[in-house]
Write a structure and sequence with these properties.
Layout: H1 5-18, E1 54-56, H2 62-65, E2 68-70, E3 87-89, E4 95-99, E5 104-109, E6 115-120, E7 145-147, E8 152-160, E9 165-174, E10 186-187, E11 192-193, E12 196-197, E13 210-212, E14 215-220, E15 233-238, E16 245-249, E17 265-266, E18 271-274, E19 290-293, E20 306-308, H3 312-318, E21 328-331, E22 339-344, E23 349-354, E24 360-361, E25 366-369, E26 380-384, E27 387-393, E28 410-416, E29 419-426, E30 435-438, E31 446-451, E32 459-463, E33 469-471, E34 488-490, E35 493-498, E36 501-507
Parallel strand pairs: 1-30, 20-24
Antiparallel strand pairs: 2-36, 3-4, 4-5, 5-6, 7-8, 8-9, 9-10, 11-12, 13-14, 14-15, 15-16, 17-18, 18-19, 19-20, 21-22, 22-23, 23-25, 26-27, 27-28, 28-29, 30-31, 31-32, 32-33, 34-35, 35-36
Length: 508
């Protein structure tokens, strides 16, 4: 039976007109049926659990991509700063899901951009209370994930006062109306590993959440400035029994945080996380590493389940860690071995690792320095008829090195044989992370997209294999888009989430 969503939406819009901007907007009646998922749905950061950032968009050819304009009829109003990437559930109607630092979840109609419902989940913290940090207010930072089978949105929301964090609450709420599922939220204060209780004041949750086989993975770092005795933590929460929580933590007294906004990645069963620099470690203590976790965040400790560069101690001392950028699970048919995990360092290096045997200290299969500065954004990878390509964005003043064509802060490498080689470079002019659209699952027409946040404030696109300009930004721009978020591609449109506003670009 077709759901009576037009009436439902009209009631929600009427509520919006009657309430203040910060009020919750709730549906007054439940829909007859659940939102139905299709291939257009975007349920997690970078669209895939391997975090490759590929969106199959059959209509988004180069000719159409070259004509992108801002859809000025799309409202897109939300409340708060947006560090998370938007998500999308296709249906009747399709809806965008947007999380903000005001602890607001907004579910917006895909056509109008007006709210189907909006709710706030506790008061965000005005300060971290740990003595450092650069996000205020601090609410929902990591990108949520959606379980369509359970019609549930999962996210971590910081609650607190004007001076400190009170808790990290991991929520599970209804996709249809925002109501909390029974047994949720889970308080981070209840989590213990080896006799150590998790301290929410010292930790931030920047990484996207990951859902694999009904286990929700939530990873943590410290705050910008590395204050306090924080660690890298991973919670593995059984979504069927949320009181059952597996944990992993780094071993040094301080450090090893998981800062990557792209979040943990997976090959379908194993979980891959990247950890940051540790402080005062004289023996390797799970920092500066790619670590493979078994279900429920179990770490074997075996060399096959971790990789760290041979110079991990100097990386520690220089704050040039792997934990700033998440790992990608990539199949590269022309590379040996073909089943890879890719890691990206703040020292500007890309590492190709055998994901079936990470090998321990210094066991990378190939390395290439691609930036003269830091890599901390999420990357994207695609296999095309011309080969497997990976696009990386430099942080702030970093620029690509060894470019055969082009120059700037965007580097694309090719994986072939046993080598990583530079393919092309370009200038994004901002701090956005890349995504890739393809017209089919063979990568026949593959296009790299970035939202040049905090720079040009423009949308840009390039041919993924050659770097040829596809779209140069046009006349339209956006405002206040954060470096941590990536755009998404939905039904031939590119969606960009900014502070208090979601922008939709479409072909003319």
């Amino acid at each position: 039976m077709r759901r009576k969503y037009p009436e439902y939406l009209a009631l929600a819009l009427l509520a919006l007109s009657c309430e203040s901007d910060n009020a919750d907007i709730e549906p007054t009646s439940a829909p007859d049926e659940a939102i139905t998922a299709t291939g257009a749905s975007v349920l997690e950061r970078n669209n895939q659990p391997n975090r490759n950032g590929v969106f199959v968009q059959p209509t988004l050819t180069k000719a159409r991509a070259a004509t992108m304009v801002l859809d000025r009829t799309f409202d897109g109003t939300v409340s708060g700063n947006v560090f998370a990437s938007p998500l999308f559930v296709d249906g009747t109607p399709g809806v965008f899901v947007v999380a903000t630092e005001n602890n607001q979840i907004s579910v917006l109609n895909e056509t109008t951009g007006r709210p189907v419902w909006q709710r706030t989940y506790g008061t965000p913290a005005g300060r971290t209370g740990a003595g450092c940090g650069n996000i205020a207010p601090l609410g929902i930072t990591g990108t949520p994930t959606i379980d369509l089978a359970k019609r549930t949105i999962y996210f971590d929301a910081v609650t607190g006062t004007s001076t400190t964090i009170t808790d990290h609450l991991i929520h599970a709420v209804s996709l249809d109306d925002g109501s909390e599922r029974p047994g949720w939220p889970v308080s981070s204060r209840s989590v213990i590993n080896g006799g150590e209780r998790f301290n929410p004041v010292l930790h931030n949750q920047r990484s996207a959440l990951l859902l694999v086989n009904n286990i929700l993975y939530v990873s943590y770092s410290g705050h910008l400035g590395d204050c306090g005795n924080f660690r890298g933590w991973v919670f593995g929460i059984d979504t069927n029994t949320p009181t059952t929580i597996g944990t992993f933590k780094t071993g040094a007294t301080r450090g090893g945080g998981m800062w990557a906004t792209g979040g943990p990645s997976t090959d379908g069963s194993n979980i891959f996380v990247t950890t940051g620099n540790t402080f005062g470690a004289t023996t390797w203590s799970r920092g500066e590493a790619v670590i493979r976790l078994q279900p429920r965040a179990v770490f074997s400790g075996q060399t096959r389940d971790f990789f760290t560069p041979t110079n991990w101690q100097s990386l520690d001392a220089s704050d040039l860690d792997l934990g700033g950028s998440g790992s990608l699970v990539v199949d590269a048919p022309a590379f040996t071995p073909s089943q890879l995990v890719l890691a990206f360092g703040k020292d500007g290096n890309v590492f190709a690792l055998d994901r079936n045997n990470l090998g321990g200290i210094g066991a990378q299969k190939a390395t290439l320095r691609v930036m003269n500065g830091q890599i901390v954004n999420a990357s994207a990878a695609v296999t095309t008829p011309a080969g497997t390509f990976v696009t990386i964005h430099g942080h702030r003043n970093a620029t690509a090195v060894g470019c055969p064509t082009g120059s700037g802060d965007l580097a694309t490498v090719k994986l072939s044989g046993t080598r990583i080689t530079m393919a092309w470079c370009a200038n994004n002019g901002g701090q956005g992370s890349p995504i890739i659209t393809t017209t089919d699952d063979r990568g026949s027409v593959a296009i790299v997209w970035t939202a040049g946040a905090a720079g040009t404030n423009k949308l840009h696109a390039w041919d993924a294999a050659t770097g040829a300009v596809v779209f140069n930004g046009g006349a339209d721009s956006f405002s206040a888009v954060r470096q941590f978020t990536s755009p998404i591609a939905v039904k031939g449109r590119i969606i960009v989430a900014g502070d208090n506003k979601v922008f939709a670009f479409k072909p003319q």
